Description:
Structural class: alpha/beta
Number of strands: 9
Shape: globular
CATH superfamily: Vaccinia Virus protein VP39
Order of helices and strands: EEHEHHEHEHEHEHHHHEEHH
CATH class: Alpha Beta
Helix content: 25-40%
Strand order of the largest sheet: 5-4-3-6-7-9-8
Number of domains: 1
Radius of gyration: 19 Å
Number of helices: 12
Largest sheet: 7 strands, mixed
Amino acid sequence: MPEEQCHLFDPSSIPIGEKKLELKTAEAPVWTENKAQLIQRYLRYFVFITKHGTYLDAFSAPQSPDHADVSCAAKLVLESDPKWFRNFALFDLSKPGIAFLQNLATANTVTKRTIHVIQGDSNVELPAFLAKNPIPEKEATFCLLDQRTFECDWQTVVEVAKHKKTGNKIEVFYFLAQGWLDRSIAALGNPEVDLLKWWGNDDWKVLAKMPGSERGIYLAERFKKEFGYRYAYAFAIYQRDGIDAGKVMFWMIHASDHEEAPKLMMRAYRNVVAPLEPIEQLKMEFGADAASTTANGSVATANPQR
């Protein structure tokens, strides 16, 4: 049993309608190898609510190309049905990673879908992309910040979270590498500089001293306080085996303004390894009858935007 598997939420703090949302612990741990499937499953629910969307992925290429079918979130989201995401922006630093992403883009057969593949430091390229290609205020948008340790500068999070000026902010999954965070901090040659850039202020010293079990909640609160997200929660991702078996390796922070998002996230988290629900079932559940999918996966008619 994972040593830190616990209730991470205070249901009374979730103001969804007049009912309190009961967020329960997953019946089985979500392992590190399930990360990409978790993202895919949640975004499948996401598009059934939005009927459209833009997907931003700051660190898109898989760390293990040989296992991309199960480890690359960008690939799983691109191939997921229904194919209602219209716009993709995929970033990566490495040339092999970019080649992999370009192959994904080339293999796309969905009409009216735009896929941008951008090589470079996502801390530079993602804000530049948003400046050049502003996301419409009513465009449902999701951003994956799946860093390994310190790759994502806090200013990049700021640019994403504050990009929209009205309505719902860009929805975010942010990964905090809990499993090796202490070792990585100790190994830094110049932590005062490196961690200031990563964390955005000197409070990284507070983070470093607190128990690992509290870090996810601490970071989730930061998303609410600094950016004004209505909902932000920490989800534990565990190590299945090896020397770190049973330990929390990542805290995945989910930040959103949409009232359905926490419920859909918990559903995805609790059912990550279960077979995907049939599309017809989800259409019935989410009332997707106003949107139809053509043979090539494009949306014929869209419901009001998220």
